[in-house]
């Protein structure tokens, strides 16, 4: 009889303990729409650079593009300069393919490689070789990430933006 009369009290104490252990209070004020840390590994190309990282490099918020699977164009995210008067030469596009072999995207083999962000990126020829610069890393047979920059005003600076962004993107790639 004693056990039966104490059971509800014990159950309430156990439930109260479990509930209390599942809550954590965090101080501060949430800022809506602001991602400062990339979530766990994601195939979202816009998750490869946080808002703060983009701002440090002079970019505004990334603009997603779902891609065109029928044309073998993977999803991408484009970051443009935070300066509204800046040209497209100050922008970068990051592609994240999850169902496409890199050989189906680039028609030519890489023409070199560079170490950026602890990763060896392959440099691929682009459609406009003097004005555009593409670096890519293969993640699997059917996935890769590419960083594409351009400079139509000064061909000596074609790869500058891509070289600035690749190390940031590298920090967010699955290992």
Strand adjacency order, main sheet:
1-2-3-7-6-5-4
For the secondary structure, the number of strands is 7
Find the structural class using helix and strand composition: alpha+beta
| Rg from alpha-carbon coordinates | 23 Å
Helix content: 10-25%
Tell me, briefly, the overall form. Answer: globular
Q: How many helices does DSSP assign? A: 4
Q: What's the SSE pattern?
A: HHEEEHEEEEH
Describe the sheet with the most strands.
7 strands, antiparallel
Query: Which residue ranges are poorly predicted, with pLDDT under 50 across at least 5 consecutive positions?
Result: 1-5, 7-33
Distance between the termini: 59 Å
Report mean pLDDT, rounded to a whole number. Answer: 81
**What fraction strand?**
15-25%
What does this structure look like?
- The chain has 175 residues and is an alpha+beta fold.
- It contains 4 helices and 7 strands; from the N terminus they run H-H-E-E-E-H-E-E-E-E-H.
- The chain has helices at 2-21, 51-56, 102-105, 160-171; strands at 63-65, 76-79, 92-97, 112-116, 119-124, 132-140, 143-150.
- A 7-stranded antiparallel beta sheet has the order 1-2-3-7-6-5-4, with helices on one face.
- It is globular.
- It starts with a helix and ends with a helix.
Question: How is the topology of this model organized?
Answer:
Layout: H1 2-21, H2 51-56, E1 63-65, E2 76-79, E3 92-97, H3 102-105, E4 112-116, E5 119-124, E6 132-140, E7 143-150, H4 160-171
Antiparallel strand pairs: 1-2, 2-3, 3-7, 4-5, 5-6, 6-7
